[in-house]
Amino acid sequence: MTEQTDRVATVRAFNRLYTGVIGVLDEGPADAEYSLSEARVIFELAQQDTTQVTDLRKRLDLDAGYASRLLTRLDGRGLLVRERSDEDARRQVIRLTENGRKAFAVLDARSVDRIGSLLGRFGDDEQGRLLGAMDTITSLVGERPSDPTLVLRPPRPGDFGWVVHRHGALYSREYGWDERFEALVARVVADYVDRRGEPRQAGWIAELGGERVGSIFCMPGEDERTAKLRMLLLEPAARGRGVGKRLVTECVEFARASGYAAMELWTVSLLDAARAVYQKAGFQLVSEETIPGFGHELTGQTWRLEL
User: Fold this and answer.
1) 95 Ramachandran zone, left/alpha/beta (phi>0; psi -120 to 50)
2) DSSP-H helix ranges across the chain
3) What is the pLDDT of residue 19?
4) Inter-axis angle of helices 159-175 and 124-141, to 10 degrees?
5) For position 217, what pLDDT does the model report?
6) Cα gap 260→223, rounded to integer Å
7) pTM of the entire predicted model
8) Which of 40, 66, 152, 230 is the most exposed, having the fewest neighbouring CB atoms within 10 Å of its CB?
């Protein structure tokens, strides 16, 4: 099979598995008082005070006839009220009644219990990997709002602890690295702070819509001619939006303007996305070695860019 065929087969296999898991979570007991479709409508209506019928149909992908029958059944059981919109009399809005809110509370508690039972099959590390994979899938294929404004700013008090925490949490969740990696990042951050006021070092925090989503630091290297690119971090929600490219470009341009002749960075071979960003920026692999790593054997790599 071709590589593309293999990839399609992998996605289809995952889809079958995931559909089975969701089916188990959604089925509920045999004597459940609401059908799956009815429960989905109740869950959706509980998210806000009033909802336009057309919006509900779009979100749940329901045709007009089926949606009307569902709403009629729930209306007849006293769970919702349908009214004409005050803003546009041609449109109908719906809201849950007090009994509808009570029904939602029961369904919500039942859903929490089922998902808790699913997660309970795994240890903390496995749960972290599972949730990290979910974050990655959501960030790549989920519906995205219009792109928020990207801001790169200098780090402020509180950002340094965030950089250490997010490195430790993300790399543990996504790659199973242990606390030794977090300790390494903490030492690099402490070194940066100890050198505060050094004109040839700088750091940047990336924000999207006012939320911190990334970081990068330029620090002095082993000699005065070489700078080091340190602590490039991207939250899952920022990936695929060009944030990594912007951070690396900013760091490289600062190093060049500060009089460095070259810039180096250290990474590991399994970080494919980061490596692609470095290569596009012009970095070249100069050495690699097998290292014990952070709970796993890894291939460490040094990359260099002549400025």
Assistant:
1) beta
2) 3-27, 36-45, 53-60, 64-76, 98-119, 124-141, 159-175, 179-194, 243-257, 272-280
3) 67
4) 100
5) 97
6) 10
7) 0.56
8) 66
pLDDT at residue 68 is higher than 80: yes
- Would you say residue 45 has pLDDT above 70? yes
Q: 176 in helix, strand or coil?
A: coil
Count of CA atoms in the C-beta half-sphere (13 A) of 288: 12
Mean pLDDT over residues 159-176, rounded?
Answer: 93
Distance, in Å, from the CA atom of 236 to the CA atom of 272, rounded to the nearest integer, reads: 14
Nearest to 91 by CA among 54, 65, 44: 54
Average pLDDT over residues 179-190: 94
Report yes or no: 44 and 82 within 8 Å, Cβ to Cβ.
Answer: no
- Burial of residue 284, with CB atoms counted within 10 A of its CB: 0-12 exposed, 13-18 middle, 19 or more buried: exposed
> What digits encode the pLDDT tens for the residues 230-265?
999 999 888 888 899 999 999 999 999 999 999 999
Counting every residue written for the chain, the total comes to 307
Rounded Cα distance, 49 and 160, in Å: 40
266 beta partners: 302
Which tokens go with 290?
A: 């097998």
